[in-house]
Amino acid sequence: MKYLKVTTFLIAAALASPVAAQEAGGRLDIVVQPEPPGLMLGLVQNGPTQLVAGDIYESLLRYDSDLNPMPSLAKSWEISDDGLTYTFKLNEGVKWHDGEDFTADDVVFSADVFLRETHARLRASLAYVKSITAPDPMTVVFKLKEPFGPFINAFENGTMPIVPKHIYEGTDFANNPANATPIGTGPFKFKEWVKGSHIHLVKNEDYYVDGLPYLDEVFYRVIPDAAARAVAFETGEVDVLPGGSVENWDIPRLAEMDGVCVTEKGWEFLAPLAWMWLNNREGPTANEKFRQAVMYAMDREFMRDVVWNGFGKVATGPIASSTNFYSDDVTIYDHNPDKAKELLAEMGYDGEPVRILPLPYGETWQRWAEAVRQNLSEVGINAEIDSSDVAGWNEKTSQWDYDMAFTYLYQYGDPALGVSRNYTADRIKKGSPWNNVEGYENLALDEKWAAAATMVTPEEREAAYAEIQKEIVDDVPVAWMQELTFPTIYRCNVNDLVTTAIGINDGPRNAWIKK
Amino acid sequence: MTIFAVVVSRLSKAILTLLAIAILNFFLIHAAPGDPAVVLAGEAGAADEQMIEQLRERFGLDQPLYVQLGKYVAGIVQLDLGYSFRQGAPVAELIADRLPATLLLTLTAFVVSLVLGIAFGVAAAARVGKPSDTVLTTMALLFYATPLYWLALMAVLVFSVWFGWLPGFGYETVGANYTGLERVLDIGSHLILPALTLGLFFTAVYMRMARASMLEVSQLDFVKTAKAKGLSDAVIRRRHILRNAILPVVTLAGLQAGQLVGGAVLTETVFAWPGIGRLMFESLAARDYNTILGVFLVSAAMVILFNIVTDIVYRIVDPRIGARS
Fold first, then answer.
1. Kind of pairing, strands A512-513 and A494-495?
2. In the predicted model, what is the mean pLDDT of residues A250-267?
3. At the N or C end, where does chain A have fewer CB atoms within 10 A?
């Protein structure tokens, strides 16, 4: 049996420790935007919910910024040589916030019953799982039907949050009154939620890691206007602006303030990658040459530098560079208007207009669409912007009523978890904007995606994904734009805030304030 | 007709009007593009068909529109505004949670703007053509024309960021746990900037209306008669001109009062004021049908209610109206 038992925990903890000893106490005010729809992480996993509930709930593992697993509710784990059996040993003495003991039964219930019903993304991974059992109260065993390399990345908090069996078993999960007062095992307990104003969490005095957490309380502040959020940070009302809280052009100004730190770390697991869906079914975008022309027409470096104020990295293909198995051995689409014009002439583009649908997430996205339109018009593509609100964007993309549409998606550390879902033909389904919306069909490549997901050794997978990336980048099913970076802005006296691959989502666990 | 009879007659009509409004709103919101189940599923960052179907089923969105309408109307007849898809709570509870903050903000702005607007309007009319009138009307024009959003941000910049005199946003100091007088003062200090920002616009509206109306009435024959009787200017202004001139202001105030419960979306957004305006805006973005319909219905009810109140105030201010009918 191959042991991946992690002994790096102590080393990692030592490395993360500053020279000075951590100081206990204090309060942290963090912006949360928009206000989460709920805090029950097993039911809702959007960004704001994960930000707040990531302190209340826990999962079996955490991940460092290189995506190596670290202990959380599980203190150690083993994967069998055939890649089919995952055995987790749980931490002892863990209690739910209501005082009940946490056991392996909670894990089995969460993964096999609760999340199978409620969690669409995890369901895709659980399809590979044959059984989940608890041979003793401190051991959980996942047996797989076939090897599934990325499975080790499925134990992150937003992917597999562990929920209390004693509260949810046999109930209507979505309507359980306990959802309003979430009970987890995490370092902070839910205290109060004043809708439209703030969410108040307090230190879990019985947390099973000695000395943690350091902070006494955390307030998540709801401030709906981006300019007002910047002001709140300037006036000292809040200490932390999580990525995306303020418009990009405000970041340099805030970063220059005394005692303010900025970090781009903490997004390695989610690795948001932005692209434009190009409708592969009809119109000019159905032509591969047109799609390649779009790639050559765009000055994506300019867009990164101006629209995103220099934050982010121009994408080379479907896999972000921080995700496992990334390869840059692909055709590079630099800014080459002449090449774009050549391709358009070859295909015989007749000036048919194309609509660009921006993502309705604020001014930056609107400007991004305008920059694209400008670049396209420079090579003779007749493009117009077709704006909409969030619900309208969902409708248009899920009903395939667009030519080019902006989006971005998380990658969750592995191409089999967060990438292939956007490109395989079995994921072409009307009515949902979280699948192969562009309508790209390449059955030979589909087989390669499927094979790469179930290869046992990382070396095999690396070679398979390199081949896939090379091929798909030539097809340009979508226009890959940029690996997004959402810098976290915080006061420098807050230490150890971003120490893992999900950054501030589990940041308060280790954070401490230097007085 | 006595005031009581007027109220009874109006209320009975109001119930039918409200029902018609509810049905109209229902069709309007369902005609807007966008599917609440897809928006909600999207908040999970990933969704499959099974999840979207589950959501549709849970919220009854898989049923024909007329069945959904029937259920909705049956609910509101029993004063049940339904359940919020997005927030997982009864709509009535969500509205009730936000109502105190909204009423505090809008009522303060309303009272301040009404009192100041009428006072400045009367003062300007009394000094028509003089420099003080010019100053007042110019100020009114300025506040009337300035976008509320910009004014709000400038107020925060000047009074919170530069001078640090007043809190720039929020309803009260979070985590301070004040009680009694301390809490009242704390909320009061948070209220000043949003209430003034919202109030300035309406002060300008009332002032211009009061001034124009005062000038118009002062040209009428009965004012000349009063002057001929030898009454002083102050008495004529207060007892004869103002009493007649105030009617259009009352009409306008009645209309505005009806919208108080709808909140003030922009002011509430900039100042992070936890009111109904924001609830409506966020629910609209998420196509949270029941919440939007609930807010619309309560707002409509308030408009109707304040129209009735305005009618009654009319009769008190101007007894001729009651006499005519």
1. antiparallel
2. 93
3. C
How many CB atoms within 10 Å of residue A133? Answer: 12
| B163 in reach of chain A (CB within 8 A) | no
pLDDT tens digit string along A383-394? 999 998 888 888
Neighbours of A127 (CB within 10 A): 10
Residue B18 touches chain A, beta carbons under 8 Å: no
B171 interfaces chain A, CB cutoff of 8 Å: yes
Nearest CB partner across the interface for A394, out of B42, B49, B87 = B42
pTM attached to this predicted model: 0.87
Q: What is the pLDDT of residue B58?
A: 81
Chain B positions touching A224 (Cβ under 8 A) are 269, 272, 278, 282
Give me the pLDDT at residue A478, please: 97
Residue A8's pLDDT is what?
42
pLDDT for A13: 44
Write down the ipTM of this complex. 0.83
- Tell whether B53 lies on the interface with A, counting CB pairs under 8 A: no
Is it the case that residue B323 has pLDDT exceeding 70? no
- What pLDDT digit, counting tens, does each position of B182-222 carry? 999 999 999 999 999 888 888 999 999 999 999 998 888 88
Q: To the nearest whole percent, how much of chain A has pLDDT over 70? A: 96
Considering CB atoms only, which of B33, B47, B58 is closest to A395? B33
A434 close to B (CB below 8 A): yes
- Block residue for tokens 């903890």: A13
pLDDT tens, residue by residue, B29-40: 888 877 888 887
Say if A16 is an interface residue toward chain B (CB within 8 Å): no
- Tell me the C-alpha distance between A506 and A489, whole Å: 16
Q: Which of A229, A275, A246, A504 is nearest to A368 (CA)?
A: A275
Task: Give yes or no for residue A2 having a pLDDT over 80.
Answer: no
Q: Which of B32, B52, B101 sits opposite A432 (nearest CB)?
A: B52
Residues of A in contact with B289 (CB under 8 A): none
Domain spans of chain B?
3-78, 93-322
**CATH no., domain B93-322:** 1.10.3720.10
DSSP string computed for B250-299: HHHHHHHHHTGGG--HHHHHHTT--SHHHHHHHHHHTT-HHHHHHHHHHH
| Nearest chain A Cα distance for residue B38, angstroms | 7
- Interior/surface letters B44-70, b for 16+ CB within 10 angstroms, e for the rest: bbbbbeebbebbbebbebeeeeeebbe
Supply A134's token pair: 């608890």
Residue pointed to by tokens 């790469």: A452
Residues of A in contact with B164 (CB under 8 A): 235
What is the DSSP-derived secondary structure letter of residue B184? H
